[in-house]
């Protein structure tokens, strides 16, 4: 080659050592998977804050939320479902979810069928239906009751997807992976 030239030499040993450290970190990615799981948990928590799915579409409001009863937030009656979201890391996997038995019907929607049943009804002195709690409060021990047959019903539960990753979480996961790789190469 004539004229000017630049020669670049690199230390293959240093590059090999850095790559070996990165490969070793990826062979045991428990910390990475745990960090990704934490990001996903935060994304799911946002679903409850915004009462919307990952695309930003609002969940269909529950009757209680529409009426403003007991705080009036959809999927947040007792807070049990939201509080149950957890992650489990094993090897190169992370699972984020809930063990609450009614989670699937809320996430996917569907129909709930209630069979016909009989029920004891209590009434006050004016002949109006009274709750069990109020009927037990009577001191005279006499309570007009009736046995009622309640027919089978089907309730349609709309889908309110909460186990989703939004674009914010996707970007956060990419940042977590980049930080992990950067630290692995610099170590």
How do the strands line up in the largest sheet? 5-4-6
- The tally of helices reads 7
Rg over alpha carbons? 29 Å
Structural class: alpha+beta
What report would you give on this structure?
This protein has helices at 12-27, 30-50, 63-67, 80-83, 103-108, 132-136, 167-186, and strands spanning 86-90, 93-97, 110-114, 117-123, 129-130, 145-150, 153-157. The protein has 187 residues and is α+β, with helices and mostly antiparallel strands.
Summarize the SSE layout with pairings.
Blueprint: H1 12-27, H2 30-50, H3 63-67, H4 80-83, E1 86-90, E2 93-97, H5 103-108, E3 110-114, E4 117-123, E5 129-130, H6 132-136, E6 145-150, E7 153-157, H7 167-186
Helix pairs in contact: 1-7, 2-7
Short précis:
It is built from 7 helices and 7 strands, in the order ααααββαβββαββα. By secondary structure, the chain is of the alpha+beta class. The strands form 3 sheets. It has a 3-stranded antiparallel beta sheet. It has a two-stranded antiparallel ribbon with strand order 1-2. It has a two-stranded antiparallel ribbon with strand order 3-7.
């Amino acid at each position: 080659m004539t004229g000017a030239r630049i020669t670049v030499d690199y230390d293959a040993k240093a590059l090999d050592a850095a790559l070996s450290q990165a490969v070793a970190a990826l062979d045991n990615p428990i910390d990475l998977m745990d960090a990704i799981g934490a990001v996903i948990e935060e994304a799911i928590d946002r679903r409850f804050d915004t009462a919307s799915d990952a695309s930003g579409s609002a969940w269909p409001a529950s009757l209680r939320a529409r009426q403003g009863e007991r705080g009036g937030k959809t999927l947040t009656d007792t807070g049990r479902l939201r509080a149950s979201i957890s992650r489990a890391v094993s090897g190169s996997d992370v699972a984020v979810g809930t063990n609450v038995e009614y989670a699937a019907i809320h996430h996917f929607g569907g129909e709930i069928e209630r069979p016909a049943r009989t029920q004891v009804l209590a009434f006050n002195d004016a002949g109006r239906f009274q709750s069990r709690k109020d009927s037990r409060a009577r001191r005279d021990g006499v309570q007009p009751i009736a046995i009622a047959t309640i027919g089978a019903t089907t309730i349609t539960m709309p889908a309110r997807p909460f186990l989703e990753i939004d674009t914010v979480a996707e970007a956060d996961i990419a940042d977590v992976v980049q930080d992990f790789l950067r630290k692995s190469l610099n170590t």
